[in-house]
Automatic annotation (TrEMBL):
Region (Disordered): 165-201
InterPro entries named among the record's database cross-references: Acyl_CoA_acyltransferase (IPR016181), Diverse_Substrate_AcTransf (IPR051016), GNAT_dom (IPR000182)
SUPFAM superfamilies (UniProt xref): Acyl-CoA N-acyltransferases (Nat)
GO molecular function: N-acetyltransferase activity
Keywords of this entry: Acyltransferase, Transferase
Record-annotated N-acetyltransferase domain positions: 10-165
Transmembrane segments: none
PROSITE patterns named among the record's database cross-references: GNAT (PS51186)
Top-level taxon: Bacteria
UniProt-recorded name of the protein: GNAT family N-acetyltransferase
Entry annotated with the keyword Protein transport: no
Basic residues bias (residue ranges): 190-201
Length: 201
């Protein structure tokens, strides 16, 4: 997917495995801004998780005259109440010298186009309350804001939930051929497999 140039040599395209180093460099800049581990997202991690046998995410790169100036990272999402497919925006980053130059809007537009081409009708993201610049940008896009409390389990808490549960795991009953339903006749609803926040700068 390639977006049309947007003045002064700006364009947006799908990232490839050759972009792993550029993605890692920009992601580490975003990590530092967010207070996340700077060294975790390496070029090797980008190649493994974005371009391996089972990619976890898709990335778009914004370029000005062939030079990377920002990126967006997203993956699949689902809204069960509306039975609708969508995308979850994980990261949005624009280099310092390129802000307020249309790069962020070009990336958001490109993500929306990716969503439409994939048969989705929405994409969503979260932002930290202290990131007032990002919040103002999203308001200008016409994004709806909702008050939620995001939760996540990482590290020790994640392991403790799994290892500390002694409840016997009962296998589900065999699926009825062609029914797609459980034993009570109701279809199961899968929770969106998303990290509950978007990192933006």
């Amino acid at each position: 997917m390639s977006d049309a140039p947007r003045g002064r040599g700006l364009s947006v395209r799908r990232a490839t495995i050759e972009d792993a180093e550029a993605l890692a460099e920009m992601a580490q800049g975003l990590n530092a801004h967010q207070g996340d581990p700077v060294s975790s997202f390496s070029p090797a991690a980008a190649r493994r998780d974005g371009f391996g046998e089972a990619p976890c995410w898709t990335a778009l790169i914004a370029e000005r005259d062939g030079r990377p100036v920002g990126y967006a990272m997203f993956h699949a999402a689902y809204d069960a109440p509306h039975a609708a497919r969508g995308l979850y925006l994980q990261d949005l980053f624009v280099n310092d010298g390129e802000r307020r130059q249309g790069v962020g809007r070009a990336l958001m537009t490109a993500v929306a186009r990716e969503a439409r081409q994939a048969g989705c009708i929405f994409f969503w993201w979260t932002a930290k309350q202290w990131n007032t610049e990002a919040l103002a940008f999203y308001r200008k896009l016409g994004a709806m804001a909702d008050t939620v409390v995001a939760h996540a389990l990482f590290g020790e808490a994640f392991d403790q939930l799994i290892d500390g549960d002694t409840t016997a795991v009962i296998p589900p009953p065999p699926a009825r051929h062609g029914s797609g339903a459980g034993s009570d006749g109701q279809k199961a609803r899968s929770a969106p497999r998303t990290r509950p926040r978007t990192r933006a700068r």
